[in-house]
Amino acid sequence: MLFDTHVHLNADQFEEDLEETIERAQEAGVQYMTVVGFDRKTIPKAMEIAERYENIYAAVGWHPVDAIDMTDEDLQWIEELSQHPKVVAIGEMGLDYHWDKSPKDVQKEVFRKQIRLAKKVKMPIIIHNREATDDIVEVLKEENAAEVGGIMHCYSGPVEIAQECIDMNFMISLGGPVTFKNAKLPKEVAKAVDLKHLLVETDCPFLAPHPNRGKRNEPAYVKLVAEQIAELKGISYEEVSETTTSNALEFFGIQSQ
User: Fold this and answer.
1) Residue 34: phi, psi to the nearest 5?
2) d(Cα 143, Cα 188) in Å, to the nearest integer?
3) What is the pLDDT along the chain (257 residues), one digit of tens a residue?
4) Which residues are listed for a divalent metal cation 1 binding in this entry (predicted)?
5) Domains recognised in the chain with CATH numbers
6) 17 annotated as belonging to a binding site for a ligand
7) Helices H, strands E: what count in the chain?
8) pLDDT tens figures, 188-226
9) Which of 70, 163, 169, 247 is deepest in the core (most CB within 10 A)?
10) Is residue 54 reached through a cis peptide bond, with omega within 30 degrees of 0 on the bond before it?
11) Within 13 Å, how many C-alpha atoms sit on residue 50's CB side?
């Protein structure tokens, strides 16, 4: 049994075969998923999918790339949706310095607002980080994000920063890159971080794991991530799948079916 903690089944890439994609995931042992909505287009789709499928849950937040577009009304909308029984986290949120659509100061302001909202509604957060590790950690500390905790989504940083995040009540989630031959840091993290602090994800349709790299990613492939972690740790696939699923259920506050 697996829990893919970060999927974008609400993306256009799944418009034609959503049902089949979910069936393939179930056949691969993926029993639970969290579909992430991060703007005005993807949030309603995330909610729709979570409401339609029993073991699919939703996270709602605002992506840093589009921080410049977020209004007070959007923040209020996210707060209202946080009360929905199928919403289990606020996010994804964070900082993305790769793209230059939203200035860094605007990204930080929107990031801080969402952390404060999460603390208000007492929900964990999902962190998007691209080329902004130091600033992410600084904001999390300044805003006392440890109060609600969260997930370092598709973590790609060093072991030392992972441990800093764990100390702030965050889970470390590994995705497709841990299977890439040249991905040194995710492999080191998979080996070093105690399994009780790890989650698995696909971030589909992006970052498909080896040997599907370059193709559309989908939740069924999270099994390849779990298998790679098991190999790196020298433990069984069953232990990785069972423990990461248990971790996710506890983290999201979901009763096992």
Assistant:
1) -120, 120
2) 29
3) 999 999 999 999 999 999 999 999 999 999 999 999 999 999 999 999 999 999 999 999 999 999 999 999 999 999 999 999 999 999 999 999 999 899 999 999 999 999 999 999 999 999 999 999 999 999 999 999 999 999 999 999 999 999 999 999 999 999 999 999 999 999 999 999 999 999 999 999 999 999 999 999 999 999 999 999 999 999 999 999 999 999 999 999 998 75
4) 6, 8, 92, 203
5) 2-252 (3.20.20.140)
6) no
7) 9, 8
8) 999 999 999 999 999 999 999 999 999 999 999 999 999
9) 70
10) no
11) 25
Burial of residue 237, with CB atoms counted within 10 A of its CB: 0-12 exposed, 13-18 middle, 19 or more buried: middle
Query: How far is the first Cα of the chain from the last one, in angstroms, to the nearest whole number?
Result: 11
143's tokens: 């805003």
What are the pLDDT digits (tens) for 119-134?
A: 999 999 999 999 999 9
CB 111 within 8 A of CB 126: no
3-class DSSP state for residue 56? Answer: strand
Q: Is 203 annotated as a binding residue?
A: yes
Q: 57, 228, 214: which is closest to 198 by C-alpha?
A: 228
Q: Name the 3-class secondary structure at 32.
A: strand
Q: What is the pTM of this model?
A: 0.97
Compute the distance between CA of residue 117 and CA of residue 86 in angstroms, rounded to an integer: 18
Which amino acid type is present at position 88? V
Please report, as a single letter, which amino acid is at residue 248: A
Residue type, 27: E
- The CA distance from 35 to 87, in Å, is 10
Q: Is 69 labelled a binding residue?
A: no
Q: According to the annotation, is 98 in a ligand binding site?
A: no
